[in-house]
Amino acid sequence: MSEIKTFPEGFLWGGATAANQCEGAYNVDGRGLANVDVVPIGEDRFPIITGEKKMFDFEEGYFYPAKESIDMYHRFKEDIALFGEMGFKTYRLSIAWTRIFPNGDEEEPNEKGLQFYEDLFRECHKHGIEPLVTITHFDCPMHLIKKYGGWRNRKMLTFYERLCRTLFTRYKGLVKYWLTFNEINMILHAPFMGAGLYFEPGEDKEQVKYQAAHHELVASARATQIAHEIDPENKVGCMLAAGQYYPNTAHPRDYWEAMKEDRENYFFIDVQARGEYPNYALKKFERENIKVEMTEEDLALLKEHTVDFISFSYYSSRVASGDPAVKEKTAGNIFESLKNPYLDASEWGWQIDPLGLRITMNAIWDRYQKPLFIVENGLGAVDTPDENGYVEDDYRIEYLKAHIKAMRDAINEDGVPLLGYTTWGCIDLVSAGTGEMKKRYGFIYVDRDNQGNGTLKRTKKKSFDWYKEVIATNGASIE
Ligand code: P53
Q1: Which protein family is it in (predicted)?
Q2: pLDDT attached to residue 332
């Protein structure tokens, strides 16, 4: 283990959230309806996010947690003050597209939406916090989905470009770190989230997904170009739902399967970071008769405007096998993986693997040689507050400590450049996968339950002071 206990100077410690999972106020100040709003909690959630079942509006008998969430829209000053108290250097948040363009295809933005984020960014700077902004975190205006079919349609490039140009112009000097699409590879697993895709019966899903992915990749390159033009200080990153695949055994076919699975995900980052479609993907398209329409201009744009850094989420490693008889899967995750017998799991079945973070960091660095940014990591757990609302979340502290150590080793022992670390759900928020409030990640407890009951009161957990100390000592407080 590393002798050096601290992190590089200027390391960006912080936390992360996403608009639809924390803001609430879904119809306030002109905000339009988005895909993420109409995904209910309960058993229909999964088929909707995978694009199997349509739900284009609110329906009777369902509870939609994103409507109010934790109401950060009205409480951001209090919440950012708490982040400031923890010593955050950065706060990752996302823009709700429909606050800026309620339908998505308007010519002019909604001033109230723009003002909201301006106030929020100014509040961050007041506390010495550098915002890190995800332009779209799984959200897409519902109108664009109904009218154009979401990202399957090339017209999305125009609407997304307009959004980006508006943001880069308005927030010049206030924001310099941008992420174009949250977990871009999630289009393969949850295509209604983010890409706004649903499928007609009998439709070739792979065809639709990869065409939509191409549109997102080109949109991302275009955004990078515009960001750099508007302000050369801007740094634009891609964002991968990461987690190294391990072969289930030393059998070569298992290794081969793990490599193929990794490539399914790296595909997106290969394009965003290297600027070209990788050969294995072109061969796959050929073999599987996937016809992705792309122009010469698209390819030139991809080539010229690669990302400045690579950000990713990491919750767990994954396992693959080439043997069809091996079937035992992990539970509760959109990302299917075989079970790893060497690892423990969270209450939701997500397996816990701190060394896997070091392995993943090294794999990504070896592949791209661009600085990394860990923008999500954490433990979703059930918290039980005492009568004062206080939670002793030692389990969360243990999880984070182990991952921070692994990250420190990757930096100090392996020489992997890492810009920063933002833990997921630094304040309790709605789960993307399940829609629950019960699955908590925060340093700050929020009084609200799965049905929407509760006062929304914020209370510091034990991990709050622990993380504050980690940041104050730049990591040295962790043995
Ligand atoms: P929840 C699955 C696997 C990896 C990352 O997830 C994932 C998911 C979605 O469930 O999403 C990211 O809330 C995502 C966040 C999300 C977080 O992981 O299901 O970027 O929006 O909340 C945690 O526990």
Answers
A1: Belongs to the glycosyl hydrolase 1 family.
A2: 64
With the most atoms of ligand 1 within 8 angstroms of its CB, the residue from 45, 239, 315 to mutate is: 315
Structure tokens at 467: 């993380």
Residue in 130, 216, 376, 436 annotated catalytic: 376
**Residue with CA nearest ligand 1 atom 4:** 241
Q: Ligand 1: which of 431, 436, 450 to mutate, most ligand atoms within 8 Å of CB?
A: 431
Q: Does domain 12-245+261-321+337-473 have CATH number 3.60.21.10?
A: no
Q: For residue 117, what is the DSSP state?
A: H
Question: Amino acid identity, residue 109?
Answer: P
Angle (nearest 5°) at CA 156 between 158 and 112:
75
Spans in the chain with pLDDT lower than 70: 1-2, 332
Summarize pLDDT for 309-363 with one digit per residue, the tens: 999 999 999 999 999 998 888 876 777 799 999 999 999 999 999 999 999 999 9
Question: Which residues neighbour 232 within 8 Å (Cβ) at sequence distance 6 or greater?
Answer: none
List CB contacts of 178: < 8 A, sequence separation 6 or more.
Answer: 132, 133, 134, 135, 168, 223, 227, 234, 235, 236, 237
pTM above 0.85, yes or no: yes
| Cα torsion 416, 375, 234, 34: sign | positive
Atom 24 (ligand 1) nearest CA: 431
106 in active site: no
* The pLDDT of residue 329: 85
